[in-house]
């Protein structure tokens, strides 16, 4: 080829207009689903880290003994076909499916389960917090190749709810790729030692992650064979505007992490469907119960009764539900608390009259995560709501790390902080624990609440095996939390995903984290 | 000249030391706890301590600093908490993408800036000149993120001509790396289609990144051209019947290019420093995006690494310009 031809061809290729809206990516006669969100997946290791995007990819590459499905979420058998527990709730026996295999062909056996649990506990990262106080690494034994026994050190009512989040890795691959005593962490940062429905094809953790579907996935595929996907691509587009544009142009099949306004606009576009389900992420304005004016329960009650809750629904364009308990409605044991504070200025003034500031004349800080527009607007709603009480609100934006860093200490924590908390499991202990003294220092413990009675109730419920008795304690816990008013209990935002109308199989399960979707079930329909 | 070079190099080392101290101090006075953020939102205290110990964050600050400087002297920039990899490896992975963007943006800036500068000078006080001057002011005044979103909307959504994020379509496999720069590697491997696609993906981010440089180069080049075009020797050349094209393209431009070249050199450093915003808006996987992602997670070793890279590049480009001036004009050697 002559230099001139070479240049001519390069120029022509560069000047070609962008391909017209491509409906989907193809591999042979099968189709690839392209999913986009704003969050990268820097560490894939299932025992080191999780957040919504990370867990979505982990769930695609790895399997666990059980899995969450449905709404309300249920724990269904997966690698384990069945299980039973001893009467004291301390010994759990799991029976494994005989046909499960890792991507390299090795069988998923009891030893792999034992190794994976041991690894997670010894690394003491990521998911370890869920079980580490109740399970020693030596407590997991491979009884035979298809039977695993897990002995807890003390009863734990929430145990089974965490099992779907503990993924099983192939010990042979991990050990073979171990560097020093790193337990294969470097290898699993972007390596694959799983048995899940997809294997890694291309991994650029900051931009594009492509997975190939396993044709003979041991669990089979939920869609008609003709629609079985060739794989999925997770593409990171950090800003919502280009993400929306890419969906419009057909470069992407499914998106998440859009603003309420974006979802409303997308719902009106031809060929695009927006799902809408009640979420499981409570938004609360946490009040510093250990320092400043909000340390006074009457002051907190005054704020809670002055707040205009309907304004939150307006800000969310109606795509939200007011919290009627500290627990989200999809959580096991949720009860509606009678007398949950709603706007009532007379009651607000009554409570304020019992404080050191009966006529207001005080200013509080409201801090939110810089860049989160919805949180900013909630702050403005608070500002407006408190004007009749002559209480001023200083709305402050802080980067997330700064907000969390300052919130860890009662002295530096803001009077009021905007906080979303997504529970990792539907077990009530996950939310209840956020109001115990042990929550101090965590981002969900910026209320600094310390109530011995509540602490005891939470500890009792955690150790209770009888589910009926346990749920009764959680009903009392919810009432106690509302009585103590460590937060202004706000809303649960609806969870939404935008997708092209040819995308099928999506099933909403509220226990998944914010934008997380179960990619195993989703596909691009041919018809 | 030798003493001049030695003095400049000594100054460079001093500035580098200052840069290291400042980046370390700024990174460590932030109230955020990187170990807590890395351990995850639900991590218990002992889990956070595990991460803190693993990354040496449990050491006293002076010890951490000494260790950081000692590692630096051995070419080790530390380990990124977010990725678990060494910062040097991460930078080696992400820098080519940034370099490609910076070079492309510089090419845009030179072609448009010099071209428009010449035309504006030749057509002084006419419509094109006014338009070019407005463009020059806008290029500096427009916030990069706003320009980026506007161009994405116009060329990506409404016109559908150009892609709005990333380096390549998700369906296109990048070429096997040689330099790490996708366009260059695709060309070297003879994958013209991939090179063309990569170039299309680079147009918008490179143009946004180039805007301030275009403006600066245009202004300098226009001013120099006007001055040279009014010089006696140009008038004399014209009087001797030298053609307009030759006067502008050879006589005037050649003499006007010296300050313009200095400006181009200066802008290189600035452009590298401006990649943070542009790479974030366009999801361009370079060191700017890497630094922003790390900063948001309070993972400061990568931020310090990127700052050092940009700082050193900036200092070196300034040093080269100083040396060039010193060589061209000996009077500046004593300044």
Distance between the ends of chain B = 13 Å
Structural class of chain A: alpha+beta
Main sheet summary of chain A = 8 strands, mixed
Radius of gyration of chain B: 24 Å
Number of helices of chain A: 16
Question: Could you describe the largest sheet of chain B, including whether it forms a barrel?
Answer: none
Taking pLDDT < 50 over at least 5 consecutive residues as the criterion, the unreliable ranges of chain A are 9-23
Strand percentage of chain A lies at 15-25%
| N- to C-terminal distance of chain A | 44 Å
Q: What characteristic shape of chain A results from the CA principal axes?
A: globular
Amount of helix of chain B: over 70%
Oligomer state equals heterodimer
What order do the helices and strands of chain B follow? HHHHHHHHHHHHHH
Q: Determine the mean pLDDT of chain A.
A: 91
Secondary structure tally: strands of chain A = 24
Count of extended strands of chain B? 0
What's the rounded overall pLDDT mean of chain B?
Answer: 85
The percent range for strand residues of chain B is under 5%
Figure out the total of helices of chain B.
Answer: 14
Would you write up a description of this structure?
The complex is a heterodimer of chains A (527) and B (335). Chain A is 29% helix and 23% strand. With 527 residues, chain A is of the alpha+beta class. The two termini of chain A are 44 Å apart. Mean pLDDT of chain A is 91; it is low at 9-23. By secondary structure, chain B is an all-alpha fold. Chain B is built from 14 helices and no strands. Chain B has helices at residues 2-29, 34-39, 45-54, 61-73, 87-122, 127-141, 144-158, 182-188, 192-229, 232-239, 244-273, 275-281, 287-296, 300-328. The model of chain B has no long low-confidence stretch (mean pLDDT 85). At the A-B interface, helix 1, helix 6, strand 13, helix 7 and helix 13 of A face helix 2, helix 3, helix 7, helix 9 and helix 13 of B.
